[in-house]
């Protein structure tokens, strides 16, 4: 779904489960966000300036020419682009905080995993929006607690948000690699799908040509909103 378009930029909403572009580890896949963006661009080439993991949904930005791609890419690398994500996590997270925890590179080539990799600085701010406690025993307690949080990554390490939330013992629901299997299975069974509960909801940058602030926003897709039914409605109680 198209979010924004001008002569230099094209932003779309990527659904969960869709790869941004072809990957050597997913050779069997035939559909990519890059293809849809090219179709929206009249079949002309577009240039991804950042990435979203396959299970993550939300705002995905493309440049419509190489010079714009280079300029926006440099702004991304310099930390000049603000990103906001929404996530459902296990437990009651603190009201707000900062996760300053370096992360080791995760190579895409599985043959390189387990080998020595660089460790890079990684920084994430977060804010809790809501909490809930449901009368379901999933681990050793008669009830289970969850939080809805906003996440603001200040660096762009691979799987940073998933790894950081695991680090503070509030893993994201639906995360097969860094989450808790019992909770993931409960949500998959209750809602009929096991998506990662992580959505990129806003991207704010200085427009590379006009110099004006550009805020690209997209509400989470329906599969995400369905899960939010476990939280009380605003003003309830």
UniProtKB/TrEMBL annotation:
The keyword Isomerase applies. The keyword DNA-binding does not apply. SUPFAM superfamilies: Pseudouridine synthase. Residues 9-167 form the Pseudouridine synthase RsuA/RluA-like domain. Its EC number is 5.4.99.26. It holds the Pfam family PseudoU_synth_2. It catalyses: uridine(65) in tRNA = pseudouridine(65) in tRNA. InterPro entries: PsdUridine_synth_cat_dom_sf, PsdUridine_synth_RluA-like_CS, PsdUridine_synth_RsuA/RluA, RluA_PseudoU_synthase. GO terms for molecular function: RNA binding; tRNA pseudouridine(65) synthase activity. This is tRNA pseudouridine synthase C. It comes from Marinobacter vinifirmus.
